[in-house]
Amino acid sequence: MNNDARLKTWNTYQAAWGPIDESERRRLLEQSVAVDCIYTDPGSQVAGREALMARIGQTQLKFPGAHFRNDSFLEHHEQGLFRWTMYDGAGRVFVKGESFGRFGEDGRLVQATGFFEVPAAKD
């Protein structure tokens, strides 16, 4: 697998965090993360695709319309470092951060770890 394939996987995973319906989110996560993936960020840690689905749903409830854009991508040895920007529902910059990802033999993410300052909930 080359950089383009890993970047495509990452972008598919990132799209699953956006304001989409549950069936589309499930489809994107099935393509991009292993069933037993591990996800961590400053406020949470979950194990498994189903728990990740729930975590993403919580994020959309707390920050409706939030979505990501990838700013840069570095990779080697089935690992990637991704710099990204999260935008709010109105398209304004909301959070900037970095994530580390580890890819499994089938090319899907087996681990994703986000690093960022936790934003306050919007009223």
TrEMBL record:
UniProt xrefs under Pfam families: SnoaL_2 (PF12680)
Positions of the SnoaL-like domain: 29-111
InterPro entries linked to this entry: NTF2-like_dom_sf, SnoaL-like
Domain of life: Bacteria
Stated name of the protein: SnoaL-like protein
